[in-house]
Amino acid sequence: MPEKPIFPTPAPRFSVVIPAYQAASFIGDAVESALAQTVPPHEVIVCDDGSTDELAEALKPFSRRITLLRKEHGGAASARNAAVRSASSDFIAFLDADNIFLPGYLEAVGEIAVERPDLDILTTDAYLELDGRVFGRYYRGKARFIVEDQRRGIIHQHFIFGNAAMRREALLAVGGYDETVLAEDTDLFLRMILGGSRAGLVDEPLCVYRIRGGTLSSSLPRSLRSGVVVLERASRHPSLTPDELGYLHRELDDKRREAELAEAEEALRGFAPHPRRRALKIAFGPRGYGPAARAKALAAA
Asked: Is the dihedral of CA 157, 262, 290, 248 positive or negative?
């Protein structure tokens, strides 16, 4: 709960930002979902991140209802930043090109924005879809939204669903997305929360998060390692108290172990370079791996 009394404010405007790269085959669903909101967005901005497919053709049916930006390929963070700079609304609602908003998304986060003007990050629950079939919800599995100590919460886990709406002013105040890291969502939320922002949740699935099965196993070690890099950078944030810094270092040790174990398992499947060196490091290294983890790593070596 907020520390001081909060008074409702006038309804803010929302821009929907969709970064797109080689997304011609599915971008239409995302754009249609943004335009079909019960409370229409102020604008929908699609940023083409140097696509070489038929993206422009796929967007032609929406040409009068969206703004299309084009840039050289620089990654999703770069595309989001370009669109944010172009946007003219109070909040930016980010939507990945392969996901969709359900019709009440903007209405729901807009109501929270009015009632809780102290919140800079607004998100909702989401359906998880794999190869066209819904199999769960984001906040009904491992993820748990943190209400009380969000500073410690964001150090511990990525508790904010990524297709969130953010106050543009607060987003720009921390420099937007870092275009040099892979875990750009985690990095941004860390910097915003540690910088004083707070997040709110609409506990209702108002987005569909689509997962492509072919990328799951191969992306896990890379994702875990990028999380380690982001947390290492966060350890230098000037607002951290001694207690928070100690907690962060303990979390960092845990996340390094998770990343190294995932890399060893990847090596066991024959996907990774230098598998023997990585597996032996875990099997005989000093960090606190359990017997099962060491056995897996030794098998990989």
From this structure: negative
